[in-house]
Specification:
Number of helices: 1
Structural class: alpha+beta
Mean pLDDT: 94
Number of strands: 3
Distance between the termini: 16 Å
Largest sheet: 3 strands, antiparallel
Radius of gyration: 14 Å
Number of domains: 1
Strand content: 15-25%
Helix content: 40-55%
Order of helices and strands: EEHE
Amino acid sequence: MRRDPRITLAVCDARGRPRSAAVPGTAEILDEAGTERTRSAIIGKYRLFGWLTVKGSLLRRGRSGTIGLACTLD
């Protein structure tokens, strides 16, 4: 994404199978503050499962091992 921020987005199920047509967009890698807001949003939306997922990721990879992404539709 640093080289080419163009992406395609589609709604998918929990197994990653597309459930809609893909649409073009762009992605931006967030800084540390943006990544922290992303972690908080995941915890806020998914509650306990989100908390477990975020904390597990932090334990496995540390703070610099995961990043937040901002995706925008064209």
